[in-house]
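Project standup — Tuesday

K.O.: blocked on the structure for the chain from last sprint. Re-posting the sequence here as requested.
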Amino acid sequence: MQNPNKRNPRLSASGSTIVTRFAPSPTGFLHIGGARTALFNWLFARHHGGKFLLRIEDTDKARSTDAAIAAILDGMRWLGLDWDGHEYYQSQFWSRHAEVAHRLLERGHAYRCYMTQEELAAQREAAQKERRPFRIHSPWRDRDDGPADQPYVVRLKAPQDGETTIEDKVQGRVAVQNAEIDDFVLLRSDGTPTYMLAVVVDDHDMGVTHVIRGDDHLNNAFRQMAIVRAMDWPVPTYAHVPLIHGPDGAKLSKRHGALGVDSYRDDMGYLPEAVGNYLLRLGWGHGDDEIIARDQAIQWFDLDHVGKSPSRFDFKKLENLNGHYIREADDERLAELIAPRIGAALTPDQRALLVRAMPELKARAKTLIELAEGAKFLFDARPLAMEPAAGELLTPENRALLKAAHGALSTLDSWDHDAVENCIRQVAEQADVKLGKLAQPLRAALTGRTTSPGIFDVLALLGQGESLNRIEDQILEPQE
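H.V.: unblocked you, prediction finished:
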């Protein structure tokens, strides 16, 4: 899970330099909400010319996996969120975490607790019966005469009087009575650190100045500040961003889009710049601007314009934004992205055809899936498989029109958009039908479907030989 060749560097605070971090747990994919948190941290650091660090919080060894770590790193790179230095692994620093816990013991801000699971369960049950919040009341809080041969945990001796206040950059001033902060565990009985201790130590040692994260961590901040103050460390600036909700206002779930970043790329066919732009606007705004390039986002981003209310995920808006970025994307790049989605490996000539077709194909696509689907007709083998609606267009009357078009097209000496357009318009005029009356069955014969790029573009892209062969396949009525 760790690279043994990497050192365990500890970064120190560097004056007024802004340092942010993204600290995901490698127990699953890079969640879309986590990706937004990473983006906000990245933008804030880049806006201020600071540092953006990536720390994999793998203290839960039972649930952390190499696959999850790979997915996180891959997702970050896909979104263009580069981090300064190499990624850190929290488990590299367990000895440092334990060192801080023992310093807290020496300072009188922590204690060894020998309470058994049965004693804890009894206190929890009593709190439930009395319908009050469960708070640990350890008889060992003010004792140091514990049995030497019994296991113990190290608990923080949390302040019991007064209140703790956070001047949050998003939530504003938030306060909690210290009586509400329990004596939480710092070191487990096996000597390993808890998340609550590790995150504080790592943030301090890495010089993190701004902790930007989801507001589901706001309650944790009060507990973490108790450690910070007990160690006489500088308190970081907190910014707790509201979570993302579904279109119905409920907590984001898989049916809303709470999927891994890889699903947006691989399964749904979104471009990274579209996902990044959408996540930026999901809880942060700059006037009425919707299309915001990454360089512009770095220039504009601040915490003052992060909203206090949960934002709602809207796939329709994401699709429209993705359609914009597809239309703006380089044709060679798009061809490279959709080639694997088309099917069999494409020859160099077929790839060149795909690039030539891209200006027409991308005009109507909102995802790479739609783009690939729209391109498949270029490479379909004859005779084409007909969509039902397309097959219904091939009536005897329309087959006669196709025969006339085939005859006229076969006489062309040059084959380009203008030449085939003039030819087809003349066929329609001679048959005394509107252009659409001919274009519809012609599209069916050429593509096997009822939608495609402009019919003249289809003819030009397929070339004269392939176009004539496809039309000829459909001229004769099928035999019963």
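K.O.: great, moving the ticket to review. Residues 2 and 89 are 7 Å apart (CA to CA). The domain at 388-475 is CATH 1.10.10.350 (Arc Repressor Mutant, subunit A).
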